[in-house]
Amino acid sequence: MVIVAFLAGLRILTLTVERVSLNRLGQSGAGSLATMGVGFGGAAVVLVVMSLFSETPIPFTTTFWTGALYALAFGLYTASLVRGPIGLVSPWSNATVVLLWMYHPLNSEGAWWGLALFVVGVLILTHKQFNRAVLMMLASDVVLALARVMDVRHSGHAPVSYAAGMFIAISLWILVPVVMSGQHKTIGPLIQKQPGWSFVAATSNAAAYLSVFTLLRWLHPAIVEAFSALASSLAAFVGVFFFHEKQGTRKIISSILVTVGTILLLLG
Fold first, then answer.
1. Of the candidates 34, 36, 30, the residue with the CA atom closest to the CA atom of residue 205
2. Any idea where the EamA domain is (predicted)?
3. Angle, nearest 10°, between helix axes 132-153 and 221-241?
4. How far apart are CA 146 and CA 61, in angstroms?
5. Which of 41, 56, 132, 266 keeps 20 to 30 A from 114, CA to CA?
């Protein structure tokens, strides 16, 4: 129980930090693909180094095609966070839960209350602010839901080795658009310009995925996603209070409604 509580806290913290760091890297103007290269390529390096201390081989063939889904999902996710602001796009990451609920609705009172709170929250949040960044996060939610289902099927693998294989696959899939767009030339300068945020993005990204995959070994996916949902509110708080994003009160209230609604949907 102590380990599960620690991993849940780690998931919430690292997912929040990951979103903030990707947003900060994106503000330097290097482009979303370069930002993704630093955040996710860096995470692959961190996880491969960790896997060297494990006797379990990296299951690369198992993760290759799932990695394609994650690469697409994380590409849209990163582009959304780069366009920002965090307080606007982060709560929309919880739409994955609503999409899964619509596919398989549960007729419990708690779930319907959760859906109602979610809808009210997003209406408040995106009043006159529904833009391309929000659409990208919604598209990411759809692809991420498919990738999560595939992850559950492989939860018997050693977490570090599986996570290393997954991020190697993700890095290989994103290599093509990064090179074709020419943004590979900006990755090095981006790391030199933002070494702190680059390190934070890589390590938090690796820890966020490793924690969620490990939690799936002990908890139902709905419970794991409930923990993840809390990161949306935390990211919104960071955007408002630390980066002084506009319309702070609206973003805080709506993110809380969205998060509570999401958790009720999951637990319902």
1. 36
2. 133-266
3. 150
4. 18
5. 132
Return the SS3 of 33: helix
Tell me the C-alpha distance between 74 and 174, whole Å. Answer: 10
**Rounded Cα gap, residues 254 and 185, in angstroms:** 39
Angle, helix 195-215 to helix 221-241, in steps of 10 degrees: 160
**Residue 105 CB neighbour total at 10 angstroms:** 12
Task: Name the residue among 127, 141, 201, 163 with its Cα closest to residue 44.
Answer: 163
Per the structure, the complete domain to which residue 229 belongs is given by 1-265
Nearest to 13 by CA among 250, 265, 238, 266: 238
Helix (H, G, I), strand (E, B) or coil at 57: coil
Q: Is the peptide bond before 57 cis (omega within 30 degrees of 0)?
A: no
In one letter, which amino acid is 84? G
Which residues neighbour 14 within 8 Å (Cβ) at sequence distance 6 or greater?
Answer: 204, 205, 207, 208, 211
Answer yes or no: is pLDDT of 199 > 90: yes
pLDDT digit string (tens) for 19-75?
A: 889 988 988 877 888 999 999 999 999 999 998 887 788 887 888 888 999 999 989
Whether the CA torsion 45, 141, 266, 217 is positive or negative: it is negative
Q: Is 29 left (phi over 0), alpha (psi -120 to 50) or beta?
A: left
CA quadruple 155, 33, 84, 202: dihedral sign: positive
